[in-house]
Amino acid sequence: MSAPNRDMSFAAVTARKNEIMKASLGIDFMDFIQSPIAFDYERMMRETGYSLEDIARIQAETKVGNTPLFELKNLTEAVRSFAGPGKGATILVKDEAANASGSFKARRASISVYEARRKNYQGVAAATSGNYGAAVASQAAMRGLKCIILQEVFDSRGICQPEIVEKSRACEAYGAEVQRLSVGPELFYQLLMTLETTGFFNASLYTPFGIKGVETLGVEVAEQVRQRFGKDPDAVVITHAGGGNLTGTARGLLAAGCDQTRIVACSVDLGGLHMAADTDFNRKSFTTGHTGFGVPFATWPDRVDVPRNAARSLRYMDEYQLVTQGEVFYVTELLSKREGLERGPAGNISLTAAVTLARQMDRDQIVVVQETEYTGAGKHQNRQLSFARENGIEVRVGDPRENVPGKTIVIPERLEQVRGRVQDMDKLRRSYLKNAVKAYPLDQWNEGDYRFLAADLKQDVAWVQQAVSTIEMN
Ligand SMILES: Cc1ncc(COP(=O)(O)O)c(C=O)c1O
User: Could you tell me the pTM of the whole model?
Assistant: First the structure.
């Protein structure tokens, strides 16, 4: 508990953030930090003290993991019907909706909540408007801990995105207290105040505990594909926002020895919309897995509520596909109508990219969509499309290339029209380097900084040196 007469003004509380983080996590990030850029990432991950076996055992105690891997035979056949000769890889999907609380986020929450219990915290708190809130609440319920979830819910008109309303409902159903805020900078202040006044554990999305929890997903994909097909997956497609889904899954695949598997990120293209802007907050139909999070987090992962982010997607990413909102709505409906699986929006983002990939890949290859999420209520595409119309967005059928985020949602007429679009990876890497230069002047970088950046960008030191020499700051 905080001392009764502590200064609780915005400035005073945010100035105490290091102290609050240390008390609420039990991790001293200063142990790992080597410079304003570099830190010992692998040691930070190791020193959580949890092995993959420990994590699988802890997750099994609270209804997490060992989810089924389904072959989407009808969808694969549909893709083969228009793919070129010899093309049309088999599409598999890992049904993560089977986890307690209905998404892979349960893997992430399970280790944080276990750690909070082990260290005798009375409760857990997290700032998230996503599935993660329900995951923390559900895990806390099973481990007998209190739970507070802070969400950004309203725009200045008091209007809420239906998917976020659904997620509030789910958190409360699992017994959590939900603090609903409007869009703006007060979320972090509110989180710090909550952590300080309650003494609860910070179940942040971005700690090493959370990311280690996702590694079992990658290991399971490797084992299930090998068992069924006698080989490793050729590509795994991963819906990308803050980067934890991709980082944890890729680390798990690598731990299982899948070093040739192509790691493909995928986000919904919301180019032109500003996530933090009150006016754009309700002009999107997807509350996660979109470029409004995916690009800034890939190009500067440390923009989070802990000093260093354990989710570092460019360390593992080979390719980044973008899809449109209309394409994902179309594929969502197809998944229900052809495969008998009604699932929520996030996993269907990577499923949409998998259609494009399968079309380009050989018939004997395997592409895995590594998650689904539960659906219902505000997550459902029909509710999302009516909300879009209520907010002045035109919804029509046509060529998805005519889609304009925040203005038009164009739903394809045929699966063949689902084409996705690849992002320029080098542009993303250069953008990361530009952010690094802004954070720490180039003339102060040492060899360790270059080595760290090379690892964080999945390149070598020579590539980083060459790239920074051509960066123009504006
Ligand atoms: C079901 C689901 N899939 C994917 C994502 C994206 O994960 P990440 O933010 O770790 O990139 C989220 C995050 O909100 C999610 O809830």
Answer: 0.96
